[in-house]
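Reminder to self: tokens first, then the designed residues, so the page reads top to bottom the way the pipeline ran.
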């Protein structure tokens, strides 16, 4: 009996010779990517990876997270993390 179905996200990009390389995106990154898209999520992971971030329903324009991904995206993340402090995942 299968209890859940895991969706595997993959990113494909060419190497220096034009050959496709696939990278499996870790499951802990999926909620961020689903909510704010790949580009904004990548910025968030690169700038704030490993650091705690607070996702507020009414984020301040002075927030470093707002400066990184924009106010609208922070509000989208609030729908997932409900105004909690959450450690942004590190990406290898």
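Designed residues (92 positions):
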């Amino acid at each position: 009996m299968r209890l859940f179905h895991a969706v595997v996200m993959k990113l494909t990009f060419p190497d220096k010779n034009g050959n496709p390389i696939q990278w499996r995106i870790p499951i802990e990154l999926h909620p961020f990517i689903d909510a704010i898209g790949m580009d904004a999520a990548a910025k968030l992971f690169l700038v704030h990876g490993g650091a705690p971030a607070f996702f507020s329903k009414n984020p301040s324009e002075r927030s470093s997270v707002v400066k990184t991904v924009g106010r609208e995206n922070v509000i989208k993340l609030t729908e997932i993390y409900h105004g909690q402090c959450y450690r942004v995942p590190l990406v290898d």
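The chain is about 40% helix and 20% strand.
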